[in-house]
Design a protein that fits this description.
This protein is of the alpha/beta class and 215 residues long. Helices cover 37% and strands 14% of the residues. It contains seven helices and six strands; from the N terminus they run E-E-H-H-H-E-H-E-H-E-H-E-H. Strands 2-1-3-6-4-5 form a six-stranded mixed beta sheet, sandwiched between helices. Strand 4, helix 5 and strand 5 form a beta-alpha-beta unit. Helix 2 crosses helix 3 and helix 4 packs across helix 5. 24% of the residues are buried.
Length: 215
Amino acid sequence: MAKFDVLNLQGKKVSEIELADDVFAAEVKEHVLWEVVKQQLASRRAGTHCTLRRGEVRGGGKKPYRQKGTGNARQGSTRAPNYVGGAKVFAPKPRDYSYSVPKKVRETALRSALTVRANEHKLVILEDFALQDAKTKLAVSVLNGLGAPSALVVGSADSANASKAMRNLESAKFLPIEGLNTYDILNYPSLVLTVKTAKTIEARLSATVQAAGGA
């Protein structure tokens, strides 16, 4: 079992916590991290790009000059792709870029991402992240005191003050535990968990490891 210090909001150690090695000290599989991050970014693409093709460009119905005798290459329309203002060849059209990866692959990527932050000593465990007020200045002060000014804070969905206090920050983000994902963990230099969220993550990911081993 991996041991981590538990801190209060002032950055002082109050206790210790043991977390499963198969979740927070697992084998880091970089190719799985790459695949899941690529899938997440692809799913976020709007896919609204749209360019006119040959049959959609208005005008250009008249042949610009006669077929022979001018010394120029033969042309049938001024809306051909080789003309300025003409159509585009293989023009992009709206499409859906999203795709899915197996659930076990996503869980493996989460374990690898959590292990990366733990190995870098960028994983901070708090006894709680209950802010007294929903003020951004307070959230910044707490994160600076923890030595994690740029961090992903994972808490419970009912942490209204923390969510409101951090929603305008560019360098940090509050995420309910239900939305925990590989990209956000890797996108911020530090990861801040509460004891409750750490235990929830451990229980969820450890159960899948045990189920896979039993199968």
